[in-house]
Amino acid sequence: MDVILQTVLSFISIYLALLFIRVLLTWFPNINWSNQPFTALSQVTDPYLNVFRSIIPPMGGMDFSPMLAFLVLSLLQRTLASAIGGF
Fold it and tell me: Hey, where are the domains in the chain?
């Protein structure tokens, strides 16, 4: 069970990094998202981000949904990490 939780924690850490890269790249308008590796990054991260975009729509050109997405994943990561520490 400990190995599974460690694997999930590692996945969450990697996914948080991918989300961070995805959000940073949106600041560069000249990026063509139909080219690799941007297409792969978008395909991996956008389904998760779209869940939060449906909750918090972009307001005036600013998209605050990634902050909620980061918060949820971080809380899950901390909860799992404390579960591993409690064993």
Answer: 2-85
